[in-house]
């Protein structure tokens, strides 16, 4: 496993990291013991960064992850969770709620310190509230030694500079972007020089586009428009037909970008995570990658968007 610095946080994170949302059974019904073994496998094979949220499976992902982490020494992993999103369409970025949220997450996770606390999906919040209320509340928690670092997450890319430009350097230490740097969409690249200049660490999530680039395909809640699902399917079917693994290619594509500190991949299956780590370390078949990128060209940078009207990106569906 290779490691990269996460911005200016001092966290030296594995280039492939563990996204714990599947532990909340968001993709399929999962077995908790299998999920726990997946976490242990990830850590045993060199992953040192884990991302979760109270939102995933309505707190289930944090609870199952907490069971897994109880057996693990605290200095073996960096733990990131989130505040502000608690259910379908349920957001609360108030100072009181996010402060209580940290206590609740720590109780579920069985820890008293969170390395990175992130505002979860700020496209659903008023920027004024994040700047004037949420981030100051998180700064207090940081000063009190309850958390190490502060980040923001979101789908539309415009939300990141909209907040970072309004706060002093170093307040927002990381961004978590998802579905915007994968084989079919590289829009995140346009912001990487900006993040570097601002000293902000970049976490890239969902290298398979939350299932788009997998043989199982997307779950029913997936917001991708039909053209994107169909276009991705063509690449999946091509790889299947020639005996290639599209997940391998997706992971390799994401982890090789030097300005992305880490890529989060989710799974509640120990074999999948073992394979994913092997994929991150295996030599890349650039010829195959070029062919798959060609197949995906008609839908390149097509995606979905969401959030308050002021926060959504112009997007090609
Ligand atoms: P992903 O692209 O990692 O896809 C996960 C899907 O791929 C699951 O269905 C999983 O079973 C499947 N998969 C994984 N490895 C596989 C393999 N080897 N073979 C076949 N299928 C495989 O998407 P994700 O799980 O949504 O994203 C990863 C993590 O990133 C999440 O768990 C979460 O921690 C984080 N994330 C955060 C946000 C946010 O903060 N807004 C949004 C999306 C994701």
CATH overall fold name: TIM Barrel
Structural class: alpha/beta
What ligands are attached or bound here? nicotinamide-adenine-dinucleotide
Rg value: 18 Å
Distance between the termini: 36 Å
What does the largest sheet look like? 8 strands, parallel, barrel
Number of strands: 12
SSE order in H/E notation?
EEEHEHEEEHEHEHEHEHHEHH
Shape: globular
- The helix content is 25-40%
Unreliable residue stretches? none
Q: Any idea what the CATH superfamily is called?
A: NADP-dependent oxidoreductase domain
What is the domain tally? 1
Overall pLDDT level: 96
CATH-derived architecture: Alpha-Beta Barrel
- % residues in beta strands: 15-25%
The strands making up the biggest β-sheet line up spatially as 3-4-5-8-9-10-11-12
Q: Class in CATH? A: Alpha Beta
Number of alpha- plus pi-helical segments:
10
Question: Can you offer a commentary on this structure?
Answer:
This protein has 317 residues and is α/β, with parallel strands linked by helices. The chain has a single domain, classed as TIM Barrel (Alpha-Beta Barrel), CATH 3.20.20.100. 37% of the residues lie in helices and 17% in strands. It has ten helices and twelve strands. It has an eight-stranded parallel β-barrel, surrounded by five helices. A two-stranded antiparallel sheet has the order 1-2. Strand 3 (16-19), helix 1 (32-44) and strand 4 (49-51) form a beta-alpha-beta unit. Helix 1 (32-44) crosses helix 2, helix 1 (32-44) runs parallel beside helix 9 and helix 8 crosses helix 9 (270-281). The two termini are 36 Å apart. Nicotinamide-adenine-dinucleotide is lined by residues 19-22, 27, 51, 120-121, 153, 176, 178, 205-211, 214, 247, 264-267, 272, 275-276. Nicotinamide-adenine-dinucleotide (NAD) binds at residues 19-22, 27, 51, 120-121, 153, 176, 178, 205-211, 214, 247, 264-267, 272, 275-276.
């Amino acid at each position: 496993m290779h490691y990269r610095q996460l911005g200016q946080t001092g966290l030296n994170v594995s280039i492939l990291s563990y996204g714990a949302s599947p532990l909340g059974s968001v993709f399929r019904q999962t077995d908790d013991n299998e999920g726990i073994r997946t976490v242990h496998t990830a850590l045993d094979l060199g992953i040192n960064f884990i991302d979760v949220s109270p939102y995933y499976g309505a707190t289930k992902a944090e609870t199952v992850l907490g069971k897994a982490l109880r057996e693990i020494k605290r200095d073996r992993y960096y733990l990131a969770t989130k505040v502000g999103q608690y259910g379908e369409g349920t957001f609360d970025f108030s100072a009181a709620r996010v402060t209580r949220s940290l206590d609740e997450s720590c109780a579920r996770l069985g820890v008293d310190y969170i390395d990175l606390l992130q505002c979860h999906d700020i496209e659903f919040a008023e920027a004024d509230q994040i700047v004037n209320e949420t981030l100051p509340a998180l700064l207090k928690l940081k000063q009190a030694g309850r958390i190490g670092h502060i980040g923001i997450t979101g789908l539309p890319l415009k939300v990141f500079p909209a907040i970072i430009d309004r706060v002093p350097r170093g307040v927002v230490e990381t961004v978590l972007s998802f579905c915007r740097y994968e084989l079919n969409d590289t829009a995140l690249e346009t912001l990487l020089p900006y993040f570097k200049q601002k000293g902000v660490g970049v976490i890239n999530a969902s290298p398979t586009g939350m299932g788009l680039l997998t043989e199982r395909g997307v779950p029913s809640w997936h917001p991708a428009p039909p053209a994107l699902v169909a276009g991705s399917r063509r690449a999946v079917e091509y790889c299947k037909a020639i005996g290639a693994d599209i997940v391998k290619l997706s992971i390799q594509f994401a982890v090789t970008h030097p300005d992305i500190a880490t890529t989060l991949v989710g799974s509640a299956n120990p074999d999948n995570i073992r394979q994913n780590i092997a994929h991150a370390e295996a030599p890349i078949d650039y010829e195959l990658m070029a062919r798959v990128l060609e197949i995906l060209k008609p839908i390149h940078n097509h995606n979905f968007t969401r959030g308050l009207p002021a926060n959504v990106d112009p997007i090609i569906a």
